[in-house]
Amino acid sequence: MEEQQAPERFTVSVGMGAGLVRISVAGELDQGFATLLERVATEAWAVASASGLVLDLRGLTFCDSRCVGVLLLLLRQSREQKAALVVAGVPQRLERILTMTGLRAMFRVEPSLEAAIEVVRAWRESQGSPDRSEKNSP
């Protein structure tokens, strides 16, 4: 597992295995750290032949509009990879932002990391489409 830190305010951890990529974040995801998360996610997609990505946001303490941009990038990447994207532990503030912008329906959100991993595994076993708009996604 790879971990990259920006000075004490933001941490990104990546785990790969069992057909999925898990990215966990902790701290403040703002304009300054969004690029780090984008780079890590892009690199993870490049090296893993994963059927899904679980984004664990349980440790996220702050997010601004740039955070929403990162989520949309990950959604686009998952569709390009024909892989599932499941977000775990969305903080209340981000949930509110996604709902107010009308973006909430685009994401599969689970309350826990374990539930998110199970959704990706079930999707992989069912051979469904990761595209939520096609109604076959997790």
From TrEMBL:
InterPro entries in UniProt: Anti-sigma_ant, STAS_dom, STAS_dom_sf
Record GO terms (molecular function): anti-sigma factor antagonist activity
CDD domains membership: STAS_anti-anti-sigma_factors
Residue span, STAS domain: 10-120
Assigned protein family: Belongs to the anti-sigma-factor antagonist family.
Protein known as: Anti-sigma factor antagonist
Organism: Nonomuraea thailandensis
